[in-house]
Amino acid sequence: MKLFYPIKLSILMFFALCSLTVFAQTGSISGKIIDDTKLPIPGASVQVDGTQKLTVTDSEGNFRITGLTSGTYTLTAKYIGFAALKLTTTVGSGNTVLNFNLKSESQNLNEVIVVGYGTQTKREVTGAISKVSGERLTSLPTPSFEASLQGQAPGVQVTQGSGLAGSGSVIRIRGIGSISAGGDPLYVVDGIPVTSDPFITGNRGAMNQNPLATINPNDIESVEILKDAGAAGIYGSRGANGVILITTKRGKTGKPRISFSSKYGLSTYANKPDFVTGAEWLQLRQEAWTNDGNTGLASLPGGLTWAQAQQNNTDWWGILTQTGKSNDQAISFSQGTEKIKSYISANYSNNESFLKGNSYERYGFRTNFDIKPTSYFSTSINVGYDKGINQRVNAAWGGGLGDAMSVALPIYPVRNADGTFFSGGANPARNLGLLDWKTRNERLLAGVTMELIPVKNLSIKGSFNMDNLNVEDNIYTPAALAGTTNGSATLYPTKIFNRNFSGTATYNWQLDTKNKLKFLVGAESQFNYKNTYPNGISATGANITEPFSENKTNLYLAMQGLAAQNNLLYYSGYQRDTFASLFARINYSYDEKYNLEVLARRDGSSKFGPENKYGYFPAASASWYISQEDFLKDSKVISNLKLRASYGLVGSSSFPSAQYYQNFQFSGSYNGQPVLFPTNVANPALKWEEGRNLDLGLDFGLFKGRINAEFSYYKKTTNGALINGGISPSTGFGSGYLNVGKILNEGYELSLNTINIQTDNFKWVTRLNASKNYNEVLSLGGLTPDAVGGGTNDTRIAVGYPIGTNFLVRYKGVDPADGLPIWLDKDGFETKTFSLDNRVPVGKILPDYVGGLTNTFSFKGFELNTLFTFAIGGNLYDASAKRQLGVVTDWNIRTDIANRWRKPGDNAEFPRLTLNPSTYAGLSSEWQYNSTMFLYDATFVRLREVTLSYNVPASFTKRLRLQSLKLFATGMNLLTFSKYPGGDPEIARDFENPQDRNMSPNVTYLTTPQQKSLTFGLSTSF
Amino acid sequence: MKINYKNILKSFLILTVITAVGTGCKKFLETPPIESLPKDVAIADETGLKSVMNSAYQIVGGGNMFGGKIQAINEMLADQLNGSLLNGDFGEIYGRKTSVFGEYKNAMYTDMYQAIFRANTVLENLDKASSMKDNLEGQAKFVRALTHFQLVQLFAQPYGFSTDNTHLGVPIRTSTTINPGVRATVKQVYDQIIADLKVAEVKLPDDNGGYATKWAAKALLAKVYFQMNDFTNAYVYSNQVIASNKFSLDTYASRFAITGTKESIFRIIYTNGGYEPGGELKGQFRSDFNAPTLRFTTDFYASVNTPNDVRKSLYETTKYPGVIATKKYNSDHIEVPVLYLTDMKLIRAESAAETGTNLPTGAQDINDILNRAYAGTKSIPLASSASLIKTNARFERSIEFAGEGNRISEIKRIGAKGENIDKRGAVWNCPGLVLQFPQGEMASNTSFQRNVEGGCN
């Protein structure tokens, strides 16, 4: 294999270049490194300039360098977050003492920022990048790490999935430029673009399986979010939605250190819609019955008599929920010498959500090694393994809590008088203990990177990575639950393989003291595929009494049975796609004042049609440190001022493979014979979506960094946005991919960090980030708004309006005379006839502003941290309310119905009750009752996090032989402020496909609410 | 600066290797997913073509067609169900006021046209066939005709609505070209259906291992002509099918049994572990575990609940108080007969009565049905009048096919002859008895003419 060649070469070089040098020992330097507050800094590096002599301070901040011949030396002490300090001393025989007092560097210009295929210092960065440190991701017990990004970075909108264990979030970076293709950012873990597609194993049970939930947040060192073409452009055809770089922890130079953290939490739902009781429900139904001109008692659903119904007032919500419990244990070991650094960790967590029977259990291990045997060669090996077991429950349209909000009526009993389960209507209690549904995710993320430095300043890197994800969805439905004679079991096994291979060469060329150039060229290839049984393996029969995972014999029998009927479908190479890329980047800096970066990438992909096989993505960016200019250098007010700009092309390729040609697939059988069916409408010109991105930014620091701010303006125009629609259904296809959309995203971002108070004992820091995004669909290639719909018809795309426009009939109010609804027609005239032709764009699901406000107060060892997150503007459409507040059917009714018309003269919010949709003229069914009656202001503010922590003083921890000990308590979502009466205002519903994710966040349909939780824990290291 | 050129050379060598692995071969970018076969691979030969043909049957027998939706929607539009508790899409269909939305019906529409697309794919690639060429052509045309026939009945006013039948029907699709849909006239649609079936009738064999046969084509022709009130042709074709003597009346219990019914001329086949027909039928009608969604009126049950009618045992009336449900589909596994002898006999009898010829044959057909229905206790004289034969044929039909989606065709067919028989009191040609087209047609072709909505009761 070709891969072995570089390995062999590296090993040869490793032996060839090994050599030993012995110095005569004559003198030494020792000292202590302390910070502003005179506390020692452990782990700081000290290097003798012009030599390879380097050491690191111990836990007391002490260092010692030996083997120095007499003479004068300059030593540099460095530590992250502090300005490097050079001191000169003369060494004779014996020891010389040299102490360093490092000043914390408020601007932090030397902070290392991870960028695509390398790192840069903050000073060198020309693109728009937000960095979030790993510790910010572990403070909240979110279902998956990406949800913790909420409110942490400007321009990043995070809508957390529901409180279901393991659920995913919708993340949008600088708006949304995709309609039918995925709008999610590219996730890259330690250089591996990882599998993150929530629909990777299909869409089952009203909750999408989130592959990111397997990633252990405790292992994350930092997350960098690449936002503009200058930063994300290096990812070419996959950078348009932004890139989230996840860097895992690595061994740090210094003594071995073991860290341990332990957390326990309790959770419940953050919000609950209020429903009427059984008696009230009956009364409302009777009122509707009477309004409709009927006499006597109203007919009842569920086959119940009035007498039976009146006996019940079942609290389905209460039956299905519980106090959730979570625990999270993590231990890690870190060690580092010049030659070997290692980080080893293990973790276990179990999150039992507030839904009975729902949990996500995860455990994982990670080892990251960095080996540097010589100055010419180094290698790093990362292996991370995680296993997640998701105990699933039905939700939303799938039942469960969704039933409790819809068709499980309070008048229904759980059990009949004879003790059997009530089966006349919905009975979600029957599922509890009967449905056995587990999804197991196993993920192996591993990579080897080798670096050669054949000559000074030239680095050649080869990196081979794998990301294996094994998802097994195991469902067992007993006969009693399915309403059949026999039980049934189904297994959906999917193995997802993701291979990534990259090679880069970097050359640093320092022309003189002022002119610096850095060249990067690279090649990358990626190969994705699945091994799967796309139709699953299922069986029903008298022998099926447990899930397949518990009975392999049944599984093999089922497979044999299916195979005998030509019906066992297995693929190795399912949905595979490939990417092959070449890229280059040149950075030029002059006098640390002017930085210029030019990059280009060429991407080819098996997804692209023959007419557009390769895409080219150039980008340029530049920055100017105005504060380094002479006229500002000595300013007392302005300590930092940086202007940056970028422009470039980026693409998005989140669409399925095999769409450009007419393809046929096998699917099951008919009459015992195989079936091959056409799956799509061919489009040979199919290609990526192309964004033209402009970014302008200003960073400034005032008063020696007491105030730090970053302000950005961006304008992204997406051309050729994919629309999966616009095809006449009488062709036999509902949709087909067309590159026809043009979308604008324009906005501003602000991040402001201030140190409000800083005394010896007390510090108050505020961090605010806010962003405004304006989104508009500029063109749809002539298609009408109904060509694509999101969220099963709740939102639309219309030219001149943002993506996810609420396209509804306008509701004027109730006619006090007869209690019937008054609508506005297309032209704004009142009408009492409802018509879908009167739908107009009236709202949008995208907020105007999103952001977060963090305040941190520290007093001695205590720290109080609060985070408010907010979304201002935009609309929330309650697609379940049309059933909960509309025509009286077999659905639960919300208490808001109190404000309804009852008699002539009533001025009310809701029309007269009826059992018959035709009472409201023109209404064909209660499902089509889509109007502004259920459109709400989506603005909300929530207290996302409150953490109180206490760092036990060193004097005390020492006695426990601990380096540090921190105790903390965290509250999540304790408060929510919103005008929406129907439950939780933060909505990422049970999406059906990527188009839904783009178009229908903020459209709720029986969506499970978020969790509210309290967590207690400690973290320590020794 | 000292440069070691040898090392640089080596390094570039490595980079070249990396590049070669990654991007060197163009083939790397032409690796289609293993499951997605390009057309030339999928339909390389007759085997591939047969598999594509099979995919059309998968839809015909699937939930969107005879697996249940065709029956369920037709029953809801008709007058034998008690839909007072129906809501949502079902309420809309039962209320005879469908709109451009309604996923239940819209998904059915698209999938039916997908069956046609698949049949057209077969027809456009017949050059790949060898010994099965005629057979496949016949099957594809049978499926295309069967599907167009269901579509035109559901989405357009019936044959006879206008004197020359130039009123709008549904789009006719006879090729796989992807272009906007345009509605043809009802006459054009029926002409296309008949033309397809006349080819199928000739090209299909007597027996076809479960697939459509020449008898299936003839039986469908009988149904199509009957629906057009063309009794001469309806008689001819139903008579040919009956006279073939390949089919015989069977018990009610065996009609949907997976062991097959001797009556079946064309049915959706159950294959253990392979194909499960009738999922949607069971889902909406099955009554042995839960009260079903679709329930019958007391009026209808009264027509079955006569002393000697054995068919009343096909109804569940006690398990769920106030609910009348059918037991026809009460089994974990069923087969669905699409064309069967009972229908042919009733068509022949009524056609005989309408044309006034071969009346004794018609009377005998009625007696065959009565004999089974009333356990030998009821019959009509062989010399019965045309009108008595017709009355009996219509009455028995209304019971025999209850829950099988036949009644609405009768309301419209008889309506077109000038007689309103809808028990819910609507006029046979009121707009709401026709389903509305999916919004997708109008979204992709702004000049697509949709149906008038509502206005039935």
TrEMBL record, chain A:
InterPro entries: Beta-barrel_TonB, Beta-barrel_TonB_sf, CarboxyPept-like_regulatory, Plug_dom, Plug_dom_sf, TonB-dep_OMP_SusC/RagA, TonB-dep_OMP_SusC/RagA_CS, TonB-dep_rcpt-like. It comes from Pedobacter boryungensis. Residues 436-802 form the TonB-dependent receptor-like beta-barrel domain. Keywords: Cell outer membrane, Membrane, Receptor, Signal, TonB box, Transmembrane, Transmembrane beta strand, Transport. Residues 122-243 form the TonB-dependent receptor plug domain. It is found in: Cell outer membrane. Residues 1-24 form the signal peptide. It is a multi-pass membrane protein. Belongs to the TonB-dependent receptor family. Pfam families: CarbopepD_reg_2, Plug, TonB_dep_Rec_b-barrel. This is TonB-dependent receptor.
UniProtKB/TrEMBL annotation, chain B:
Its main location: membrane. Residues 309-416 form the RagB/SusD domain. It is found in: Cell outer membrane. Keywords: Cell outer membrane, Membrane, Signal. Residues 27-225 form the SusD-like N-terminal domain. It holds the Pfam family SusD_RagB. InterPro entries: SusD-like_N, SusD_RagB_dom, TPR-like_helical_dom_sf. PROSITE patterns: PROKAR_LIPOPROTEIN. Belongs to the SusD family. This is RagB/SusD family nutrient uptake outer membrane protein.
